[in-house]
Design brief:
By secondary structure, the chain is an alpha+beta fold. Helix content is 29%, strand content 39%. A hairpin with a 3-residue loop joins strand 4 and strand 5.
């Protein structure tokens, strides 16, 4: 596995085979996690008040502000706060968010994701049109 170094706004992965390094900005990691959250069926929006229906209109960069990341040794921890659509099982939706975020981060960045904390901050009672 590559050596991981964290600084103020990015993570650097140093190659074991001396081919160089890869830097990934924190906003990239946050955006990947946020997009993964919004792809889960039953999630109405992130706490940042960005409904899943308007993600495409606003752009992916705004999503990064809705997810907090932190690093613990060689792994990343994610904190996401969501609103769940009425009628969906909160525990099942939350577990799906955890699985989707972890899978997306590990497959897209190669970083180990040790924790995905999901906070359900509300229920969306609006009816889909």
């Amino acid at each position: 596995m590559a050596e991981l170094e964290k600084d103020e706004s990015k993570v650097t992965l140093k190659s074991e085979d001396n081919m160089g390094f890869i830097q990934i900005a924190d906003d990239v990691i946050s955006s990947i996690a946020a997009i993964a959250v919004t792809e889960v069926d039953g999630v109405s929006k992130l706490t940042g008040n960005i409904p899943t229906e308007i993600v495409a209109k606003l752009g992916k960069r705004n999503l990064a502000k809705s997810v907090r990341i932190s690093f613990d040794n060689d792994s990343v921890k994610i904190d996401a706060s969501i609103e769940v659509k009425f009628g969906y099982n909160i525990v099942e939706v939350s577990k799906a968010v955890q699985e989707r975020v972890k899978s997306a981060l590990e497959s897209m960045t190669g970083l180990k994701c040790s924790l995905v904390n999901v906070r359900v901050s509300g229920i969306d009672f609006t009816e889909d049109k």
